[in-house]
Specification:
It is a single chain. The chain is built from 16 helices and 24 strands. With about 500 residues, it is α+β, with helices and mostly antiparallel strands. It has 2 domains: about 240 residues, 2-Layer Sandwich (Nucleotidyltransferase, domain 5), CATH 3.30.420; about 210 residues, Nucleotidyltransferase, domain 5, CATH 3.30.420.40. Strands 18-19-17-16-22-23-24 form a 7-stranded mixed beta sheet, sandwiched between helices. The protein has a 5-stranded mixed beta sheet with strand order 3-2-1-5-15. The chain is globular, with a radius of gyration of 22 Å. The N and C termini lie far apart (about 65 Å).
Length: about 500
């Protein structure tokens, strides 16, 4: 009987799931880890401890809980946060902590320099993406300029999934979907690496390109000894966590959009043709001939955690959600800019600042927490507004992630964005999507079968809210009005 294993490394937690040929869950496991913030604007993980260590721990726990003979697992697929930048030496050992995705804004100077040298229009035409904090290329250039001794020892630059697949199989590979985030080093027109725009790294130090469901290699004896998995088990190329999460809830056809409520909001919409707009991200989708437009906020679930830890220590989220629900929609006039780590799409401003505006002495904690939820939902609505402007209005929105349990946040997203949201029965996320992709890779499933694996459970419909119609334009104006102040404060902090 076919069994497949999917493991996902998230920003704060690793999850794994073992399923049978019908998608039924046989065992699950999870393990937490931390995101390191050694200085403002930086975000890191320890590749060996947080990525590989968690993979080993979760794989062994799943095997123990399921009682399955490891030889009955027909394929393994993994995903992880991304795109990341991890330099490794000639034997694959990490040379430093991994630099995380768009929440790490250390390469701002390199982005500006590359834009000047190459030209933003040329980068967009070749790479399908403007250079932003999500781009790995500027972070590699940062490594070369700021850590030249480490760059000289760098044999390969990996992302999170690449590192895991290398540990499992000894192969250095990366999927096209992830590679598209390596601007200006990936040509979306040729689906290949390029040094035509910039040559600060040679192509032999970038992993081999594959599609996500191609088999990258097989589990080595050394990896089997650590994980408990059977030697020779096929391992897919893998992908970024958000893409696997999208697969888990049935994103498959043009117009399908995933809304992932996690430490950050991440959105992926499958499109029939490439959508190239500097406010969004583009990548080939997981399957050849398909395309995706992506967007992401910098702080979402992370901001709710900050609020609780700072303003309501020890208070359960259910209590805060109840207080927010008691506050009227519009939070009695309080606006929250959720830019506590700058912002990614659609404004791409790493220097943006978080703010509460409109406070008076009558406001309470519930108003503030509702404003946080509505501020994040406004950021999401801003992205949906851009998608509509570029002719890629979502036809179907599928919501997933822990934040969907927050009814105030979930409903505000539908109300402000003007979109119904579909929720599926299984909310496990990327690890479940990985298990499905593993089944597709070995011919045990076809992409459309995800609807059978994970049927629709319910739908959240948008409701017209006069307060939102009045406040959303003001919310956008608040950022514009305070942008100069935020940058002045940022300049002062740098002195």
């Amino acid at each position: 009987m076919t069994h497949t294993l999917g493991i996902d490394i998230g920003t704060f937690e690793t999850k794994g799931v073992l399923v049978d040929a019908r998608g039924r869950i046989l065992a699950e496991a999870r393990h937490p880890h931390r995101m390191l913030v050694p200085r403002p604007g930086w975000a890191e993980h320890r590749a060996e401890e947080d990525w590989w260590g968690d993979f080993v721990r979760v794989a062994r726990e799943i095997l123990a809980r399921s009682g399955i003979d490891p030889r009955e697992i027909t394929a393994v697929a993994t995903s992880a946060i991304g795109p990341c930048m991890l330099p490794v030496d000639a034997v694959g050992a990490p040379l430093m902590n991994a630099v995380l995705y768009g929440v790490d804004t250390r390469a701002t100077a390199q982005i500006a320099a590359l834009d000047r040298q190459i030209g933003a229009d040329r980068i967009l035409a070749t790479c399908g993406n403007a250079l932003t904090s999500q781009s790995v290329g500027p972070k590699i250039l940062w490594l070369k300029e700021e850590r030249p001794e480490l760059f000289a020892r760098t044999a390969m630059v990996l992302t999170s999934t690449s590192y895991l697949v290398w540990k499992l199989t000894g192969e250095y590979v990366i999927d096209h979907y992830t590679a598209a985030n390596f601007s200006p080093l990936y040509d979306v027109n040729r689906l290949d690496w390029t040094v035509e725009l910039a040559d600060f790294i040679t192509l032999d130090r970038l992993p081999r390109l594959m599609w996500s469901t191609e088999i990258a290699g097989r589990i080595t004896a050394a990896a089997a000894a650590e994980t408990g998995l059977a030697p020779g088990t096929p391992v897919t190329c893998g992908t970024i966590d958000a893409a696997a999460e999208a697969i888990s809830v049935g994103v498959q056809a043009p117009g399908d959009l995933m809304m992932m409520y996690g430490s950050t909001i991440f959105m992926i919409q499958v499109t029939a043709a490439p959508v190239r707009d500097p406010r969004l991200w583009y990548a080939p989708w997981l399957f050849a001939g398909m395309h995706a437009s992506m967007a992401g906020l910098a702080t979402s679930g992370t901001l709710t955690h900050w609020f609780r830890d700072t303003l309501a220590p020890g208070v359960d989220f259910t209590v805060l959600a109840g207080e927010a629900a008691a506050s009227p929609k519009g939070a009695r006039g309080v606006l929250c800019l959720p830019y506590f780590s700058g912002e990614r799409t659609p404004i791409h401003d790493p220097r943006a600042k978080g703010a509460f505006f409109g406070l008076d002495l009558t406001h309470g904690r519930g108003d503030l927490f509702r404003a946080v939820c509505e501020g994040i939902a406004s950021g999401t609505a801003h992205v949906i507004e851009v998608l509509r402007e570029v002719g890629a209005a979502p036809a179907r929105v599928l919501a997933v992630g822990g934040g969907t349990q927050n009814a105030v946040w979930l409903q505000a997203t539908s109300d402000l964005g003007g979109v119904p949201q579909i929720l599926c029965e299984k909310t496990i996320g990327a690890s479940y999507g990985n298990a499905f992709l593993a089944a597709v890779a070995v011919g045990a499933a076809v992409p459309r079968q995800i609807d059978d694996w994970n049927p629709v459970a319910r739908q959240v419909d948008p409701v017209p809210v006069p307060a939102y119609a009045r406040q959303y334009p003001l919310w956008k104006e608040l950022y514009t009005a305070t942008r100069g102040i935020a940058q002045a404060l940022d300049d002062g902090d740098a002195v």
